[in-house]
C-alpha cells in the first residue's frame, strides 16, 4: 500500500506548490478533485480534455515529483431530482472518467447519489427505517427506477474506458453501507466498488474492519480514505448517531470527524491496515482532513505520522515472517 492524500486539503494553493508540499512529506500518491463537492481547484477535466498541451503539463507536474494519481474524485449527486443539478454532477463524472483513461488513472471516486421520492420531487429523500411502509415503497422506487438503471449504464461506460468506480459509502446517499454497495455491484457490474472511508462506518455503527472483510472478500474495495471519527459518549445518547446538528457545533454533537489517530488509537488503525492486506488490497491509503479542531497542516501532518508508523510496523512484520 502507498500513502497518499486527497488534494482538496490544499485547494487554496497552486497545484505545483501543493504537490511539492505533499512530496516533501514522503507521500507517493495524490487523489485529485475533478468536480462536484471537491471542486476543480487543481484540475478541470473539461479543459484538459480539450487541450493536449495543458494535459501534458498537468501530468508532468505530478509525475516529475515522483507522485502517482490514485483517483480522480467528483463527489456529487447525479441522481438529484432537480435535473440541472443532476446533470452538472453527471457531466463532471463523465469527464472525470474520460480524463482518468487519458491519464492512466485506475479509479474515479464519487457518491452514488440519492433520488427524490417520486418523479417530480424537488429534494433527495433518504429512507432509513422500514416502517411506516411509505419508506419501503420509496426505497423500492428509488432503486428500481433510478439507482440501478443509472449506475448500470455508468458502470459499462467506465469499464469501456478501463476505469473503476469508487463509491464512497456515505450517509444521505443510496449506497452507504457494505450491503447497499454489494447490492448495486451485483446489479450493475464489477466496475462498481467502494471508496471505503472508516469515518463513515464508525458514525453509522459499523466496524470498519468487518466492512473491509465483507467488501474485500468480494473484491469490491477500489480505493481507501483515511479519516477518523470520535463518538461523544454523552451527546450520542441525546442526539443519536443520525445527529443533524451542523458540524460546527463540535461541543454538542454526537460525533465528529478527526484526523487519523485522534478518534481511534493507532492499534485500531493497524487492525484496519492489516485487514486491508488480508483481503488483498494493495493500493492507496488516501488521507482526508475534516478535523475541526486542527488546522489543515496540523491534521495532515499528524495523520501522515500515524499512518507512516502503522505502515512501517506492518512492513517490518512482513519481513519478520519471511
Automatic annotation (TrEMBL):
> Could you tell me which residue ranges the Xylose isomerase-like TIM barrel domain spans?
19-303
Keywords, ordered alphabetically: Isomerase
- Signal sequence span per UniProt? none
The organism sits in which domain of life?
Bacteria
Record InterPro entries: IolE/XylAMocC-like (IPR050312), Xyl_isomerase-like_sf (IPR036237), Xyl_isomerase-like_TIM-brl (IPR013022)
Pfam families membership:
AP_endonuc_2 (PF01261)
Molecular function (GO) terms listed? isomerase activity
The protein, known as: Xylose isomerase
Amino acid at each position: 500500500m502507498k500513502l497518499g492524500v486527497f488534494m482538496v486539503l490544499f485547494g487554496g494553493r497552486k497545484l505545483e506548490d501543493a504537490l511539492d508540499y505533499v512530496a516533501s512529506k514522503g507521500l507517493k500518491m495524490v487523489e485529485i478533485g475533478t468536480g462536484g463537492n471537491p471542486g476543480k481547484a487543481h484540475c478541470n477535466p473539461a479543459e484538459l480534455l480539450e487541450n493536449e498541451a495543458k494535459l501534458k503539463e498537468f501530468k508532468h507536474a505530478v509525475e516529475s515529483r515522483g507522485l502517482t494519481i490514485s483517483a480522480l474524485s467528483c463527489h456529487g449527486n447525479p441522481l438529484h431530482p432537480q435535473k440541472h443539478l443532476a446533470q452538472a454532477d453527471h457531466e463532471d463524472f463523465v469527464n472525470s472518467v474520460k480524463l482518468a483513461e487519458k491519464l492512466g488513472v485506475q479509479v474515479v471516486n464519487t457518491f452514488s447519489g440519492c433520488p427524490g421520492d417520486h418523479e417530480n420531487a424537488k429534494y433527495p429523500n433518504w429512507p432509513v427505517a422500514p416502517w411506516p411502509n411509505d419508506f419501503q415503497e420509496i426505497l423500492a422506487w428509488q432503486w428500481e427506477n433510478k439507482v440501478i438503471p443509472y449506475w448500470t449504464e455508468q458502470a459499462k461506460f467506465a469499464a469501456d474506458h478501463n476505469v473503476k468506480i469508487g463509491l464512497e459509502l456515505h450517509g444521505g446517499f443510496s449506497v452507504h453501507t457494505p450491503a447497499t454497495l454489494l447490492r448495486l455491484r451485483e446489479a450493475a457490474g464489477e466496475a462498481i466498488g467502494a471508496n471505503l472511508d472508516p469515518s463513515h462506518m464508525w458514525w453509522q455503527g459499523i466496524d470498519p474492519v468487518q466492512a473491509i472483510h465483507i467488501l474485500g472478500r468480494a473484491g469490491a474495495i477500489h480505493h481507501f480514505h483515511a479519516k477518523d471519527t470520535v463518538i461523544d459518549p454523552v451527546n450520542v445518547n441525546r442526539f443519536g448517531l443520525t445527529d443533524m446538528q451542523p458540524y460546527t457545533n463540535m461541543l454538542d454533537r454526537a460525533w465528529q470527524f478527526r484526523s487519523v489517530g485522534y478518534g481511534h488509537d493507532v492499534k485500531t488503525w493497524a487492525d484496519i491496515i492489516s485487514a486491508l492486506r488480508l483481503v488483498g488490497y494493495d493500493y492507496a491509503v488516501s488521507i482526508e482532513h475534516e478535523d475541526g479542531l486542527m488546522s489543515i497542516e496540523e491534521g495532515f501532518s499528524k495523520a501522515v505520522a500515524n499512518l507512516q508508523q502503522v505502515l512501517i510496523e506492518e512492513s517490518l512484520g512482513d519481513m519478520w515472517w519471511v
